[in-house]
Amino acid sequence: MVTPFYAGASAPRNSACAPHAAALLPASAGTPPVPPGPGPTAVHPGLIEHPDLTPEVQVALLTAVDNAVIAELGDLACVIPYHPRPISAVLALVDAGVLALDLEAGFDASLRVWRPIA
């Protein structure tokens, strides 16, 4: 059975995350993000430039994947609880080749995500 995780009230950012996901959360996860100031922001080395991905969001996601080695999509959505589209943020990193998905699995919260071997 597929468990919905990105629709309405059942989205992970709107409910408690799984207990094992707490280990993936950065220390600042309990506070809302500070809005960016005026002017362009510098792109950090190793990060991608994307309108939905601040450097802080990218670092949080990549740190979570590095800590878990193979993370679950639902857990990664919990790592960025204040992001308006957490799944889109993860998929943007997949599109850029920074992360990889298990393309043979069902698209749900347990979808495995990892760093591809370079």
Can you describe what's shown?
The chain is α+β, with helices and mostly antiparallel strands and 118 residues long. Helices cover 26% and strands 7% of the residues. It has three helices and three strands, in the order αβααββ. It has helices at residues 55-68, 73-79, 86-95, and strands at residues 70-72, 100-101, 112-114. Strands 1-3-2 form a three-stranded antiparallel β-sheet. The longest helix is centred in the middle third of the chain and has 14 residues, at 55-68. The model is unreliable at 8-14 and 34-42 (pLDDT under 50).
For the termini, the CA-CA separation is: 34 Å
- Which structural class is indicated by helix and strand composition? alpha+beta
Low-confidence stretches: 8-14, 34-42
Overall geometry comes to globular
The largest sheet, given as strand count, sense and whether it forms a barrel, is: 3 strands, antiparallel
Q: Tell how many strands the DSSP assignment holds.
A: 3
Neighbour order of strands in the largest sheet: 1-3-2
Order of helices and strands: HEHHEE
Helical fraction equals 25-40%
Rg: 14 Å
What share of residues are in beta strands? 5-15%
Q: How many helix segments?
A: 3
Average pLDDT confidence is 76
